[in-house]
Amino acid sequence: MASLNDLKHSYIAVKKDVETYLFVEDYASAKKAIEEAVKLLNEINKREPHKWDAAFESLKKYYAVCKAKLGEAELKQYDKKKDLSKKKEDGSDNKGQDDILVNESGQEIQTKFGDIDVTAFFDVASSHPTFDDIIGMEKEKDIIRDNFMLSDAMRKKKEEMEIESESFILLYGLPGTGKTYFAQAVATEMEKASGNHIEFLSVVSTRVKDSKVGHTEKNINAIFDYTKQFEHVILFMDEIDALLTSRQLASGEPGHEGVIATFLQRLGGFSANKNLLFIAATNTPYKLDSAALSRCSTRLEVPLPTKELLKISIQRKIGSYLHEEISIDELAGLLESKHYSNRDIKMLFKDLKLQALKALPEDAPVSEARITKEMVLQGMLDHPSAYSASEAEKLRQYREENKY
Ligand SMILES: Nc1ncnc2c1ncn2[C@@H]1O[C@H](COP(=O)(O)OP(=O)(O)OP(=O)(O)O)[C@@H](O)[C@H]1O
Ligand SMILES: [Mg+2]
Predict the structure, then answer these.
(1) Is the domain of 68 the same as that of 195?
(2) pLDDT tens digits for range 273-308
(3) Residues with C-beta less than 6 Å from any ligand 1 atom
(4) Residue 87 has pLDDT above 60, yes or no
């Protein structure tokens, strides 16, 4: 059995981890570390009752912060699993229990279609950003509001005038610019605006693709069958080029025609339902099949952040820790010149905050942490942007050729 001293040392180390994770806003890791810290505290508490009440209280507060930040998505997922295991434990539902999930409203959701388990294709989003979290993209937010977030009255008027509602959005742009993040925010905003629960299904298209002829079609069918169980659903398919490469580019690939045909057929049925929205994302829109693209009238480019937007990100994320020897304007200029994407800056800022924290004397408060110019220059060497000039050029050409 561990000695009390060992336990205390472990607890102090884990608590430091918690603080670091909170500081760099890695709430998922912070939550795990808090759980670990609570376990240790429980052990300590057995031997020194009540002495650690204050420590418990502060962990509780941290935990609440993590839960709030991680958003409801993760918790709902956790509740589903809990519900399921409860059912398994008391044996109240033995029939096909591995194939069924229980959603928040208690509805049983079928997840297995033939021998295909659709959950294998999904990515579970751990956060639900809102439009306020999305820095920039104001025009794109407006397009979504005007076309996809209609009041019931407006929707009825459109129907009366026989204006077809839109149901297919394509987001395209360089890696890490925020396509997935934007799609998640669309789901949050539509849910807020409609007051209905919207099931956000995030599909990783590369997982759907199967090299055996006919299997990709089966997977696509299973996904669309799955969506039918929900009243309001957003089907988000990331890396859609994996499935919908143009016929010319995929020529010679056995079964590719069948994949596109199945997809288009199912999409047709999907879009006939007013409560469904299909969002696809890609880095390479110029590779997509033209018949598939022609179904989509809302194509939004998600660009790299401009200097002005970078300034806002810096201000929001690390502004208060920036040393006076480097201004926000200068840092934004540096990042812009190296074409940093939102993902690139997220990783860079995390590293910069950690560097500042490491340099902070043990007893100094976090508010005194400073990111120096040297840390910035070193950080940019350690975390260069993922920018590719040739990819950017292809996107520029696509944009020029597709002015709609
Ligand atoms: N407009 C934005 N404002 C603030 N943060 C953003 C924005 N866009 C992206 N981010 C941050 O950058 C991260 C990466 O973005 P995301 O994963 O959405 O990129 P992506 O375009 O989908 O990349 P990929 O092409 O590789 O799939 C997000 O998790 C988010 O934290
Ligand atoms: Mg993405």
Answers:
(1) no
(2) 777 899 999 999 999 999 888 888 899 999 999 999
(3) 134-137, 173, 175-181, 238, 281, 283, 302, 342-343, 346
(4) no
